[in-house]
Amino acid sequence: MLLVVFLCLAFVGSPSYAGSLIKKGEEGQPGTWYIGDTPPGGGTDLPVLLFVHGLNSSAKTWYEDNDMYQIAYNNGYQTAFIDLYGTRNMWDNGSLLAEKIEEIYQYFGRKLVLVTHSKGGIDTQSALVHYNAHPYVSNVITLGSPHKGSQLADLAYSSWASWLSDILGQKSDATYSLQTGYMSYFRSVTDEHANVNKNKYYTFAGKDWGSFGSSLYWGGLYLSSYGSNDGAVVVSHAYLPNGTMVRVDSSWNHSSIKSGSETFQWFQPYLTLNQTSSAQSFVSASLTGGAETESDMVVRGGEYVLGAATETFSVEKDVDRLSIDWMSAEPVNQIEVIDAQNKKQIVQVKSFRDNQFFKGAWHNVIQLNNPKPGKWTIHSTSAKENAFLLTVNYETKKQEKVKLKKSNHKDKWKVEVPSKNVKKNKLKMKVNVEALSETKPAQKIARKELKATDEIHLPEIQGEGIYNVTIDLEGEDVSGQPYERTIIKSIYVDKNGNHY
């Protein structure tokens, strides 16, 4: 009898394991969807969970090196996973996803809850709102989705990054559509749409960058000018108008936020067949982000000539730390850092490969404490044809950032500089405006040199499209030391001339 009791207890306490997936199409092809094992009891009183991946990803992100599938199965949920286009915009993916949502709904015979990561959240809203898939879905979970775009996409299309992005081939429809200017346009045609409230949206965001020497750490450092972020998406941009922000967690980065052991327990209350209307928001809904663009960075870029590249940047007084990233299309032979006294610095270079917006690029990261003020130089050599993007992040005691603000006029902007430590009358700015296309090379349409007190007036722009504005500020701080910063902004102009 004791043996029987023991065996029964052991059986009850043993975890159940999900097995192989059933696929409905050719593996890896956009539109292919996969069915998870049926959990004990069939889970017919629960919705089917459809998992939607993000940029440059695939359905495997949910069940390879991720316990999300297993945890959903153990909790009694039937699951499905889908492959979308990894490099196409929300319109192409939204149309495809809408078609497949209906197919999956018909297969199971009950409503779906969509669990989405990153750009998958945008593709999903496009499918439900613009392609009328809303009747087949109750609720939507978005994990680290850039509902207002990502400044990393702006950087990828900036004039300084063009050499590197072109060589890497990372200028895709997807990255193009994630620029903040275009996403502002997407919000304008989505947030007031008749279908926008047909489903409930529950959003989640993280504030961790991962470990030093990772793509997310570098992304987090760059995005820190814009606020708290998960290494790829600023928290304020993960908020969705008409949605509920459930949780912002300081331990989640852009990768870990899609892990079942990290987030399933938090979004499980919203996995219901009927729309949940009384969600508890753990975060103030007032955090929506402003219209300002801020910077405490210098950005430079170009190509290697005869196997070598040299770039300079300025360091003002009272900088506590410099974080330097020399990103290149190919591995480099060496990187030398020379300070303002023309002395070669002994530096530790942490090298790693990017798997995010600059997928395939090589980062070479250096951190320097208490750098001497003046003009610094970086020199690099490479054995292969190469291009580079240099970003320098300044950490100062005052933490005052340069700001780009919208003027009252639709196509005028104004730069605000830290008045206490920068001489405004010594500050000049070079403004570069380029017209962008998903497939064609950027077209330079303006390059002006202005005083920092001047308003920036965008040139008359012909036609619909995204226009990247890169502003390089050069001048002096109050002690007479050189001062530099870079501001990058994307602006979308629609067919009626409206700016976003």
Could you please describe the fold and organization of this structure?
The chain has 500 residues and is α+β, with helices and mostly antiparallel strands. Helices cover 20% and strands 32% of the residues. It has eleven helices and 24 strands. The protein has helices at residues 2-13, 68-74, 90-108, 119-130, 151-156, 162-168, 173-177, 180-190, 215-223, 235-238, 260-267; strands at 22-24, 33-35, 48-52, 79-82, 112-117, 137-143, 200-206, 244-249, 293-295, 297-303, 308-315, 319-328, 334-338, 350-353, 362-369, 374-381, 387-396, 402-406, 412-416, 428-436, 443-451, 456-457, 465-476, 482-493. Strands 1-2-4-3-5-6-7-8 form an eight-stranded mixed sheet, with helices on both faces. A five-stranded antiparallel sheet has the order 10-17-12-15-14. A four-stranded antiparallel sheet has the order 9-18-19-22, with no helix packed on it. It is globular, with a radius of gyration of 25 Å. The N and C termini lie far apart (74 Å). Mean pLDDT is 86; it is low at 1-14 and 277-290.
